[in-house]
Amino acid sequence: MPHNAPMLVQFFRNPETVSVFKRGDWDLLLRQAQGADVLPRLSFLLREKDLLGSAPEQVMVHLDSARNLSEGYERSVKWEVNRICHALRGRDVPVILLKGAAYMLAEMPFARGRVFSDIDLLVERQKLDTAERALFLNGWLSSHLDEYDQRYYRQWMHELPPLKHMKRRSVLDVHHTILPLTASLKPDSSKLFADIVPLQDNPYIFTLSPIDMVLHSATHLFHEGEFEHGFRGLLDLDGLLRQFSAEIDDFWTVLIGRAAELDLNKPLYYALRYSHKILLTPIPSGSIEKIGDGVPKGLTAKLMDALFMRALQPYHYSCDKFGASLARWLLFVRSHYLRMPFYLLIPHLLKKAMKPKKQL
């Protein structure tokens, strides 16, 4: 195992590394985990691997606190999902969870201790009005009242403006597809809806199919521009790939075929390449090369390696390679380019730049 990787990366590659940690190593590990927003996940993994005995007493205080906070957060999320089900029941709008809430409610092992800021739902576009009205009647209000922002979301994006509950302050992101309508990649959302699966213990709650969960995770990570949580997103991909490849026959062939069907070759390529390079996710030999059209080659591939291998490290100064801040900024600019063509993007950025700060 390469030892030039950040300590947190080495831990998630092989948790047994903590058995030789000194006090200073633990301190740095906690700081990196906190910066990457994965401290509760680290705490749960140490417990799962029976490695807590290696931790000094002062470290245990932080680990216990992170785990307790995560468990309280999980109870809160489950209650919010219960209230969403209550709001939408009887309206022919299935509750389809995405990302963190989906991993949590499906009780995926890798997601123990995962924290997130909002709950993501997927709703068929023709049912958005019904869903929004029902959620409004149950206290979730649009948090973007500016007329331009409303038009930006409703005309061009893949989601409604964020909805915030008037009392509990929970935030919902209600999507109708997984990429903006103006993006160059055009996955057919009807194919996602066709393959949704109910949770085993709750027939009213659904997730994407396992294959589509991987593709959505990849698409979200490699099209968004905020890499403060990039390492957390990479951990999600690593967990999804390890779990589903062990559970699904011919997983890699099916995954690659589905990516081509949904026009998501490029995000899948990045997902497999960087989860393997950074977290040593086991990818069968030749699988990445089987991904079809649209993947970067030559100088483009080298440039993306230089950017992503910097931006996807844990968000802590001790993990930054030379040029990491520039890499994150360039990928932020790239995310806007991927979201909208230039003839829409330039006027949009000018509009946002001229808006008074109190409206942003």
Q: What report would you give on this structure?
A:
The protein has one domain. The protein is 54% helix and 8% strand. The chain has helices at residues 7-13, 23-35, 39-48, 57-88, 99-105, 128-137, 147-156, 189-194, 210-223, 230-247, 251-261, 265-279, 298-311, 324-339, 342-354, and strands at residues 95-98, 119-122, 140-142, 163-165, 171-175, 197-199, 202-207. It has a seven-stranded mixed beta sheet with strand order 3-4-5-2-1-7-6. β4 and β5 (171-175) form a beta hairpin. α10 packs across α12. One of its GO terms (molecular function) is transferase activity.
Q: Roughly what is the average pLDDT, rounded to an integer?
A: 92
Element pattern in H and E: HHHHEHEHEHEEHEEHHHHHHH
Q: Return the domain count.
A: 1
How can the largest sheet be summarized?
7 strands, mixed
Structural class of the secondary structure composition?
Answer: alpha/beta
What is the total tally of β strands? 7
Helix content: 40-55%
Radius of gyration: 21 Å
Report the oligomer. Answer: single chain
N-to-C CA distance: 45 Å
The low-pLDDT segments are none
How large a portion of the residues is in β-strands, by DSSP E? 5-15%
Shape label = globular
- The number of helices is 15
Sheet with the most strands: spatial strand order: 3-4-5-2-1-7-6
GO molecular function: transferase activity
InterPro entries: NTP_transf_5
Keywords: Transferase
Walk me through the topology.
Elements: H1 7-13, H2 23-35, H3 39-48, H4 57-88, E1 95-98, H5 99-105, E2 119-122, H6 128-137, E3 140-142, H7 147-156, E4 163-165, E5 171-175, H8 189-194, E6 197-199, E7 202-207, H9 210-223, H10 230-247, H11 251-261, H12 265-279, H13 298-311, H14 324-339, H15 342-354
Parallel strand pairs: 1-7, 2-5
Antiparallel strand pairs: 1-2, 3-4, 4-5, 6-7
Helix pairs in contact: 3-4, 9-10, 9-11, 9-12, 10-12, 13-14
